[in-house]
Design a protein that fits this description.
heterodimer, A: about 280 residues, mainly alpha, two-stranded antiparallel sheet, 11 helices, 2 strands, globular, B: about 325 residues
Chain lengths: ~280, ~325
């Protein structure tokens, strides 16, 4: 019993850290631009594919990872460009980003097939914790994810750029009036968030297998996390990503992976019934 | 001038009723299926184009209607065999009921929540097919051959044409009525609609229930048409095809999505794949359709129907 509990805590924490990277960016983009970026999962998968394919064909691992991050950043910029002309039209923003997400998924499917692929872990070996084997890569990815989340939170709450981001998300017109270049803030947030999602994808691919379908999965978990944490709240999504991580590992351990989407939906519906603004939500 | 659209509509009905005389059966089958697909696009428009709430899970209700009707029709699955027509209606009602519950939970909140939840719905319902494999038949689905409402290609064609005409008439009536005006008031400004005393949640849920009902009916009709039910009726590609048709035709117009659906569905099933094979690019037909959707969404967000009306309107004025 203790073993199972410990296993759930350890694996849930690792998974939570990775999904936290995806959800925090999704939440940040929504906060600043009110755009639900359905293509966020595509950045996750694309970065991983680029890193895997480049490192697999003999390039330096670190350079391959950098290239993957660059591609996800470009994808974020592409989302910015595509949504700019329709930003006032909520319906079209959702449709355009969703279509982009599925477009990328299909291109990956056609060219690389639907088989899951994975990346050789950067660090090898494992430690034993009370008879549970935890690979060093999992520990490393947890540390890296938490480090990124902490620095993102520090950047938003402590720096000048962060103040601009907060100002824009509170009231973009007022922010514009105080001389903030709102467009630059939007670009920064979209590119940075997509790079975070890409980074999560690269970490994920070193622990699990990744396939074009994973982008939808990543998106669903991000939804659950941001709704639990409150749409637009960065700290809320960081905290709730771990809660969702534990729920996920619990589900997979006791019910099987098929049920994960179902449980996520159930969690979302429950939150919406009980507390629609989420744990840390801000009233609109 | 005012009678021209009416005359044109009447002419179109006559032409489609006479089509079986000139068109070979293989094509007739595809055109009949296109009519049923058109109901999906129009019913999506009823929710999204008229109330402005983006439903990303319309296929949930298509699949629900399809599976419910199929299970009730063929005795081979659950030992029940009710009249196909009753099964189709129950399929629609089941879809409407699920729409009602999802609606009252998500539609009292701002639109984002509705979109996020409906985006997940089809994936969840698709999993049910695999989890309860012996009931729903897994990825293969199952067949209702021998227990369908219609059996010859000709009867199938007229069945789907009749269903399309009834659905279009019903939905036209809804959007032209006071209820439809309230839907549009909510779309244009939720705050304003609320301030003049419209219960916005109630009307959003009503629109969603109606939209889900027609989707369920069409889903059930599709099963009766092609005899098979399978998880692809829940799947995302069908959802995107519906969205593309409605956006291409023009949201909030009913007739626009109808035209869009006919164009898109025939293109996808007739010549698009061959065209892509000729170009030998590393893409499939879905990639092309998604790219078209992005382009239309950005360049022509009001759709072809709107552009056409605008152009014709200008010419009349001059």
């Amino acid at each position: 019993m203790i073993d199972v509990l410990l296993k759930i805590i350890v694996f849930g924490t690792v998974v939570g850290g990775i999904w936290g990277l995806v959800a925090s960016g999704f939440s940040l983009i929504f906060g600043v631009s009110r755009i639900l970026n359905f293509a966020h999962g595509a950045a996750f998968v694309c970065a991983a594919y680029v890193a895997i394919l480049l490192s697999g064909s003999g390039f330096n691992v670190y350079l391959s990872i950098l290239a993957g991050l660059a591609v996800s950043g470009l994808l974020g910029y592409l989302v910015y460009l595509l949504t700019r002309p329709v930003r006032k039209n909520e319906v079209m923003v959702i449709i355009v980003t969703l279509a982009l997400a599925l477009l990328i998924q299909q291109i990956l499917l056609v060219n690389f097939g639907d088989k899951g692929i994975s990346m050789l872990p950067l660090v090898q070996g494992f430690v034993e914790l009370n008879n549970i084997k935890v690979t060093n890569m999992r520990i490393a990815s947890f540390v890296l994810a938490v480090a990124s989340l902490v620095s993102l939170d520090l950047m938003v709450s402590k720096t000048r750029i962060g103040k601009k981001i907060i100002a824009t998300s509170q009231d973009s017109e007022a922010a514009m009036l105080t001389g903030i270049d709102v467009e630059k803030v939007l670009i920064l947030v979209m590119v940075l968030s997509s790079i975070l999602a890409g980074f999560a994808g690269i970490l994920y691919a070193q622990i699990f297998a990744i396939s074009p379908e994973t982008s939808l999965k990543a998106l669903i978990y991000a939804f659950a996390i941001v709704i639990l944490g409150g749409l637009g709240s960065l700290r809320g999504s960081i905290v709730s990503s771990f809660i969702v991580g534990y729920i996920l590992v619990l589900t997979i351990t006791f019910l099987g992976a098929r049920w994960s989407e179902f449980v996520m939906l159930l969690a979302i519906v429950t939150i919406l019934v009980v507390r629609p603004t989420g744990l840390f939500g801000v009233e609109e | 001038m005012k009678n021209i659209p009416k005359l044109f509509g009447f002419l179109m009905i006559l032409v489609s009723a006479a089509l079986p005389v000139v068109i070979p059966e293989a094509y007739l089958y595809l055109i009949g299926l296109t009519y049923l697909f058109a109901i999906l696009a129009i019913s999506w428009d009823l929710m999204v184009g008229y109330t402005g709430q983006v439903n990303l899970g319309h296929t949930t209700f298509v699949g629900l209607g399809a599976y419910v009707a199929a299970l009730l029709q063929t005795p081979l699955r659950m030992g029940i065999a009710i009249h196909p027509l009753a099964a189709i209606i129950i399929g629609g009602l089941a879809a409407a009921l699920v729409g009602f519950f999802i609606g009252i939970i998500t539609l009292r909140l701002r639109g984002y929540y509705f979109s996020l939840v409906t985006a997940i719905l089809p994936l969840v319902f698709m999993q049910t097919v695999f989890v309860w494999r012996d009931v729903f038949g897994g990825e293969e689905g199952f067949s209702i051959a021998g227990y369908s409402l219609v059996d010859t290609t000709l009867s199938k064609y007229y069945f789907s044409l009749a269903l399309l005409l009834i659905s279009v008439a019903a939905m036209r009536w809804i959007v032209k009525s006071r209820i439809g005006l309230r839907f549009m008031a909510i779309r244009d400004s939720e705050e304003l609609a609320e301030s003049i005393g419209i219960d916005t949640t109630k009307y959003k849920v009503l629109a969603f229930v109606l939209s889900s009902f027609f989707a369920g009916i069409a889903g059930a009709a599709i099963v009766n048409y092609r005899y098979t039910v399978g998880p692809e009726l829940y799947d995302v590609p069908l959802m995107l095809l519906i969205i593309l048709s409605a956006v291409l035709g023009g949201l909030g117009t009913i007739y626009g999505p109808l035209i869009g659906a006919v164009v898109i569905y025939l293109a996808k099933n007739w010549w698009l794949r061959d065209l892509i094979e000729i170009t030998s690019l590393p893409v499939n037909d879905e990639v092309v359709l998604y790219a078209v959707l992005i382009a239309i969404g950005i360049l022509m967000p009001h759709g072809i129907f709107h552009e056409l009306r605008e152009r014709v309107g200008e010419r009349v004025k001059h």
